Every structure is written in structure tokens, then in C-alpha cells.
Amino acid sequence: MSTPATRTLAPRLSAALAIFVVMAAVPPLALALDDPFLMVIASRMLVFAIAALSLDLILGYGAMVSFGHAAYLGIGAYAVALGARWGVTDLLAQILLGMGMSAAFATVTGAISLRTRGVYFIMITLAFAQMAYFFFVAQSSLGGDDGVALQARSTLLGLPLEGDQTLYYTILGALVAIYAGLYRLTLSRFGRVLKGTRENALRMQAIGYRPFRYQLVAYVIAACLCSVAGVLLANLTEYVSPAYMSWHRSGELIVMLVFGGIGTLTGAVAGALVAVGLEELLAVFSEHWRLGFGLILVLVVLFSPDGLTGLMRRLGLRAPGLRNDGEGRGDD
């Protein structure tokens, strides 16, 4: 029997499934068009969709505006470079290494950052990310500011990820798995407490919960998931650089959420695809593509503050036979 909750979630899940099906069709399309660069762009879209999903967990569901989230993207990338030097070439092992490094850094910095609120939280997360950035800049053995090129891509269960198509489907599989995991997490008791903390932390504390613990755990989970995107990005580019963890990159992740709709998992994925796609499309017409990108972002903020998900919801309400099921922010 259908319930209001299932009617609310069904369109979101259908939209996510449609996105995954379309992205799964990209390699055959690139082969048919004889355009391998299309698959490279799509791979980049999927990598940043994973990073945007991880940020959405703390920003959209936990109201923690981190301006240093890209630090974990860089840590994951450097896990590949360090793993290769230590003889660790398996992708899963490198992911575990990146997660471990990110979890350690996030636990310490998150415990400190979560003692603050508002703009202070934003600035302290930015400060910690810059510390990580300059730490890797100072590592001359890893190329310093110039970064380091990888000798080869990782292996997966003993099989090399040399082919672009193999790597592409590996990234897509990781995205689907992370989406499914976060979907279950946000619907669990943990996710509901996190959303309650977002709405009113004092009220959650009054009924017996300790918001700090839930927020810190979410912060660490988000860091670990973002490091997965970093591992995959390093394999995609076969290059690792401190630029991956710059504050500009953190800002780009926030922009992706704004495009898609903050607090919706499907919106995070769609926002990343649109943002990366717009970047590539506008760059074809002008080297000053950021001006057009900024104008589009302003229009989205002014006319559709809820991003693509809000726009689609409003269009759906105007269609015959469709109605509002009461879905709100963070109720993916």
C-alpha cells in the first residue's frame, strides 16, 4: 500500500535511476560517434557527482557549510600516489588508505570545527583545508606545487584499469553504490536525527540526543566518501596535485549543490553533471566562460533557489494530474 512518504520518494528515485541509465549509455554513444573525449568528460562528471553527494550529506542534511571539503578530494588523490610508491596498486586498497587518512584528518578537524557555528565554522574548515593544501605543497618528494604524474592507473582485483571504458563503469558503479548507501543512511534513525539537528539543534538536545556526535560522524563519513572521488579522479587524470584541495574546488562543489538543489541526493548528482557539462560547453565558445557560468548561477539563485529539483517540482505541479506530496529539503 502506498503512503505519502513512498509517493514523495518515488519520483526522486525514478529521476536518479534515469540519470544512471543515461550515463551508462555514454560509452556506447562515444564509440558510435568516435568521440573518446565524450567519455572523459562524462567520467569527470561522475567523479564530481560523488564529491557533491558527500558534501550534500553535511551541508544539505546537517546544515554544516564546509568551505574546505575539497581537502578530502586531494587526500584521496594523494592516497593513490602514496600507495603506488609503497607498492599498493589495488584500487580498493587505495580507497581504504584514502578513507583512513581522511577519517583521521576529519575526526580531529571536525571535532574542533563543530565547536563553532555559522561563519566561524565556514572559516575554520577553510583554514584546515588550506593547512592540508600547503602541507602537500611543501612535499617536494611528491612534486610540491607542481604535483606528480602517476606511472600507471590502479588495478581492480588484479585487473588493470587501463581502458577508459573500464574505468568509466568503475566510477559509475562507485557512484551508484554511494548513492544507495546515502539514501539508506538518510532514511535511517541517524539520518532523521541529523535532519532534526539541522532544523533545531536545541530541540533535539532537549529530547535526549547529542547533536555533536551525530554531526561529527556525518562529517567523517562525508570526508571518507569524498576521498573515494579523489582516488577515482587521480586514476582518471593519472596526475595528482595540491590544486585538487584548493578552496576554489570547495566552492565549485557548493555551486554544484546550488545547481541541483541542496539537501537532495538526486539534486547533488544532477547538479554535478550540469555544472561540469556547462563548464565544458561554455569553454568551447570563449576562454572567459566563467562570466557566462556566473550569470547562469545568478539566474538559478534568483529564480530557482531550490535548483533543478525545485524547478522540476514546480513544473510537475503545473502538469495535469500531478500534485505536491509535501516533500521538503533533505527528504530525498
TrEMBL record:
GO MF annotation terms: branched-chain amino acid transmembrane transporter activity
Topological category with respect to the lipid bilayer: Multi-pass membrane protein
TM ranges: 42-63, 70-88, 94-112, 119-138, 166-185, 212-233, 253-276, 288-305
Entry's Gene Ontology cellular component terms: plasma membrane
Cross-referenced InterPro entries: ABC_transp_permease, LivM-like
Keyword Isomerase part of the UniProt annotation: no
Keywords (A to Z) from UniProt: Cell membrane, Membrane, Transmembrane, Transmembrane helix
Signal peptide bounds: none
Record flagged with keyword Membrane: yes
Domain of life of the source: Bacteria
Main location: membrane
UniProt subcellular location: Cell membrane
One Pfam short name: BPD_transp_2
Listed PANTHER family: ABC TRANSPORTER ATP-BINDING PROTEIN, HIGH-AFFINITY BRANCHED-CHAIN AMINO ACID TRANSPORT SYSTEM PERMEASE
Name of the protein in question: Leucine/isoleucine/valine transporter permease subunit
Biological classification of the source: Bacteria, Pseudomonadati, Pseudomonadota, Alphaproteobacteria, Rhodobacterales
